[in-house]
Amino acid sequence: MSELDAAIARVYGLEIETEPLLPPPDATPEAFLRAALEIGRAIGSRRSTPPVTAAWEPLPHRAGAPASAEERTRAVARSLAWAGARGVRWDGLDVRVDAAGGAAIHAARALAAGEEILVLPRHAMIVKADRDELAAWLPLEARDPSSPWRGYLDAVPPRFDELPVFHDAADLEALAGTAAHALAVEANRDIRASHARLPPDVRARVSLADFAWGRAVLASRGFHAPGSVEHAIALLPVVDFFNHRPGDTTWCFDPARGGFVISTERAFAAGEEIGFTYGDRSNAR
Asked: Would the N or C end of the chain have less CB density within 10 A of its end CB?
């Protein structure tokens, strides 16, 4: 049973058994396609239990209203000043905030393919090996006025209303029976279980709402730490202002400079938005 099959089975209480429907390994591609269709029909026909949305409980938000566009604009400006002071360097880039408070990177001038546009030193990254430790650290650090990461954390959205784990049951009904719904339910359960496993002294200072915010930061902004052999999660200041779009830029980790280097893959006109790939993801993810 695949990971996704298992997630759907847990959510909807199904006994999904795909093995009998699969053709032998040497079967034709058409045979595997027919098997995939049969598996889809089997899942659909055996989903007899009611949608889990009836028992869905959204994760709580941290206190406070979403930041306005004006507040986000000021926070982004402070973040860029902080990043420049930390040694982050960029050329030909303009960070803009739209009316909804969303930040995006645009070309400040015409850019040629192959231009180096951003260098982020390792010491300007937030890197930790343990996801849940980092998720708990983030809200604690965010409320410390003397934090050396103040400039970065002030520009991180204070809420993530768009993520499914924070939506109510009525919203989630539209996804009932889909892989996207199963993934949302699994994420909700995992965040609650991970918060419950935090050391008691940490849990006393980090509420479920705080922790859910920290996990949302990592879900929307976390990367594998550049230059790390062992798995570690990194938050990359300035880089996380790029919206996801493949084919615009490429990156490398340059050990000589100890930095994460982003270059253009194609030419850009002045004012054009520049994307950065977050990796291959399915529509559900």
From this structure: C
170 vs 3, 7, 285, CA distance in Å? 26, 21, 20
Q: How far apart are CA 173 and CA 88, in angstroms?
A: 44
Q: Which of 90, 142, 114 is nearest to 260 (CA)?
A: 90
Q: What is the pLDDT of residues 208-241, one digit of tens each?
A: 999 999 999 999 999 888 877 788 999 999 999 9
- Give the pLDDT confidence of 135-157 residue by residue, as tens digits: 999 999 999 999 999 999 999 99
CB atoms within 10 A of CB 33: 11
pLDDT digits (tens, 9 = 90+) for 256-268: 887 899 999 999 9
- Hey, what are 71's tokens? 């507040």
Q: Is the dihedral of CA 117, 222, 106, 275 positive or negative?
A: positive
